[in-house]
Fold:
Amino acid sequence: MQFSTVPLVGACVVGLVRYRRLETTRRYLVWLSWLALLVTGVAMWFAAQHRPNLFLAPIDTAIELTLLALMYRRALWPLAVARYLPLGIGLFLLGTALTYVPRLDTAQFSPVQHFIESVAILVLAGLYLWQLLQPPTTLAPLEHEPMFWVSAGVLLYFAGNCLIFLTSNITLFHSRELSMTVWTVHALLYSFLNGFYIVALSVTPRHPATMEGITQS
Structure:
């Protein structure tokens, strides 16, 4: 579980080194990585003190959804959903603020916010991939599309999270060993996610050729 921090640090380093060469969309990803590292550092400090740290989860989720949604807003423009994403972000943050009750005496937390985030990001990633495959046919390799790598990562990570967060409190009540296994799987998924983020921050985008352009030429 501690190893999952290593890919996150890698994403932070790559983002910092390449920051000046990145467009706005990927700069959001750099901010996401550094803020996630900050929250992770605070969580590890609480864990070292043998104190619950899951009260940080809603803060982390709010940051993550906000920055990912802003990335997809740029990637999905001019689809109608992109115009309404700021409203969706605002409602999510408002709901988070109104329901946030930080507690240091429990290892349980409400999974509702995380489930909503997971479903929302999965929908946005699906819409992006759907848009990416629409005509005119893209001839440039997909591996040069940063948001393709981001979408691949979030599809894997948040699909697993939907089940993990809904069952987290149940597994904790049933068995500490089972709970640790579930969160180990979560850490593995998080490692893969940040691995995809590293690739997204590293690739050089290319302007794709299209079948339409080839036909006209």
About this structure: The two ends are 54 Å apart (CA to CA). Residues 146-174 form the longest helix (29 residues).
